[in-house]
Specification:
Low-confidence stretches: 1-6
Protein name: Tetratricopeptide repeat protein
Pfam families: TPR_19
Oligomer: single chain
Keywords: Repeat, Signal, TPR repeat
InterPro entries: TPR-like_helical_dom_sf, TPR_rpt, Ycf3
Length: about 180
């Protein structure tokens, strides 16, 4: 009980309402085009990093604090604390894709693959250019044994950024599909 109180007390104070999520559609489209045209893996990874910079810009200071808190807790393997922060973020900012993507990632790390799916799908609905959520969807579907869907999700991510590290999984998925 005391641990739960400490986790709640450590979260930042809530603001009144979440403003609209930042719209970086045009910037992300430009980065997708740049990734598709990247001459090498290093350039492709730099473009991926630039995408993350946009995805992790929260709608306001409170949302940013929740996002940062959740990511810090996840990085220190405090998955329950991370989930609490991401759940607060999703409740506060239901139109901010990264809250869903990060919560899905924690579910994935906890091997709660079924719980990760709706969050990944919602993140992609909110930000169709969210290459990381598409990749996360592919990995989650793969863990669930849904090889055909995983292959399609990974192909969609690779169409946007052919330099993703997960590209090495495509031949594996395709081979698994042929075995079925």
């Amino acid at each position: 009980m005391r641990l739960l109180f400490c986790m709640v007390a450590a979260l930042p104070a809530q603001a009144d309402t979440c403003p609209a999520a930042p719209d970086h559609t045009e910037e992300l489209r430009a980065l997708v085009v740049a990734a598709q045209a990247a001459p090498d893996q290093q350039t492709g990874r730099e473009i991926s990093n630039a995408m993350w910079e946009y995805w992790t810009i929260a709608p306001d200071t409170y949302a940013q604090e929740l996002l940062d808190t959740g990511m810090e807790r996840r990085e220190s393997y405090d998955y329950l604390g991370a989930l609490k922060a991401f759940e607060a973020l999703v409740d506060y900012c239901p139109d901010y894709a990264e809250g869903y993507n990060q919560r899905a990632f924690v579910h994935f790390l906890r091997e709660e693959y079924e719980a990760a799916l709706p969050d990944l799908e919602h993140a992609i609905t909110l930000v169709p250019q969210h290459v990381a959520a598409r990749t996360g969807l592919a990995l989650t579907l793969m863990r669930l044994g849904r090889t055909g869907e995983a292959t399609l999700a990974l192909r969609a991510a690779l169409e946007m950024n052919p330099w993703l590290g997960e590209r090495s999984l495509l031949p594996v998925l395709e081979a698994m599909e042929q075995e079925l």
